[in-house]
Amino acid sequence: ASFSEMLGTEVSLCDNLDRIDRALKGSGGHDGDISAEILALRTIHPLHHTTRRVGRLQYDLHTRLHQRADAARALELIASHGPRCSISSPCNAPENAFDLEFLGDGFRRAGDFGRAEEMYDRAWREQAVRHELLHPYVACCMRKLASVRLRLPAAETNELLALGTLVVLRGLPDRRSNGVVGHVGLLQDGLYTVHLGAGSVPVLVSNVSSALLAKAPLILVLGQPVLVHGLTSAAGQALNGRIGTVEAFGQGRVVVQGVRRGLGVADLAAENIVVVDALEVASLQGASCPAFRDEGVDTDSETDEEEEEEEEL
Q1: At what angle do helices 68-79 and 95-109 cross, to 10 degrees?
Q2: What gap in Å lies between CA 5 and CA 306, rounded to an integer?
Q3: Which residues, in sequence order, are CB contacts of 255 under 8 Å at separation 6+?
Q4: How many helical (H) and strand (E) elements, i.e. helices and strands, does the chain have?
Q5: What is the structure's pLDDT at 105?
Q6: What is the spatial distance between Cα 206 and Cα 152, in angstroms, rounded to a whole number?
Q7: In this model, does residue 81 exceed pLDDT 80?
Q8: Contacts of 29 (CB under 8 A, 6+ apart)
């Protein structure tokens, strides 16, 4: 195609996108007449600046229509847009990190936890380029990354665990079992017997990760992902198995962000906090950045972590 043809295609697509956006805003986002036009949109190139808008519109439409397979394809379209960034080579487009978190949320809802892990990992690293580790944007991505890792079996299972080692269950089909803490027993035919408070369960080697209680002689790190365990009250039991990030610690207490709804924190005894090495971000201690972009805190992004869990029930 000639340059003039390509330019005409781009202008036509931008006009269609602008018209669709105006129609959606004018109708509250539920105008059925515009659905066919959204589905008819075609991208110019994965890295073109309109690809993100096309993917978002089609993903939202397919999600409203409960078309999971088509929604997943739209997510992949969005994922193809934009550069890959790193702490050593940050992006010039700050919205890329939020797109990646959005993609992680979408893949998580679709049950594709491997793709969700990839997106959350990229998202937190890009947020860490611009913010300190305790910034809500960074902490939220890290919690989501650790939570989705609990839904996946361990990638490496070469370590032979000693009898009585504290472990956390992970990657099991029953999501309620993931995050349960127990002690490892005998290994036989590739299965560990894990002793829990209410009995024992046999699980594959890849379904356990070693852990330590925070009251053990170890050093917690601010911003570190941790798991809540062993609370016995009615309200506390609802927090067991949830992932939070460390905001403060000392004198046998740990202040954890992200395990309660909204922006509230939980002040818990150290014996109720478990550190799971396999859920941590490898470069956690070297990822902070002094730059700060004050755009306010998106409170919805904090509550999404619990809402997504409820959607999967």
Answers
A1: 150
A2: 48
A3: 246, 247, 248, 249, 265, 266, 267, 268
A4: 9, 10
A5: 93
A6: 9
A7: no
A8: 60
Residue with tokens 């959606």: 24
pLDDT of 285 strictly over 70? no
Cα angle 55, 151, 99; round to 5 = 25
Cβ pair 260, 251 in contact under 8 A: no
The top-scoring range by mean pLDDT among 106-110, 213-217, 306-310 is 106-110
Return d(Cα 230, Cα 241) in angstroms, integer.
9
Task: Write 147-151 long-range contacts (CB < 8 A, 24+).
Answer: 147/242, 147/243, 147/305, 148/104, 148/108, 148/113, 148/116, 148/117, 148/120, 149/117, 149/278, 149/279, 150/178, 150/179, 150/243, 150/279, 151/113, 151/175, 151/178
pLDDT at 27: 56
Token pair recorded at residue 64: 């409203």
User: Closest by alpha carbon to 244, among 216, 215, 217, 273?
Assistant: 273
Asked if 242 and 179 count as a contact pair (C-beta separation under 8 A), the reply is yes
Alpha-carbon span 276 to 223, nearest angstrom: 14
What's the pTM value of the predicted model, to 2 decimals?
A: 0.75
Across the range 263-292, mean pLDDT stands at 66
Token pair of 148 as six digits: 């989705």
In tens, the pLDDT along 25-76 reads 875 544 457 899 999 999 988 888 898 889 889 999 998 888 888 888 888 8
Contact 209, 276 (CB under 8 A): yes
Residues 39-52 have pLDDT tens digits of: 999 998 888 889 88
Within 13 Å of residue 73, how many CA atoms lie on the same side as its CB?
A: 7
Residue 198: DSSP 8-state: T
Q: Supply angle C-alpha 195, 199, 204, rounded to 5.
A: 50
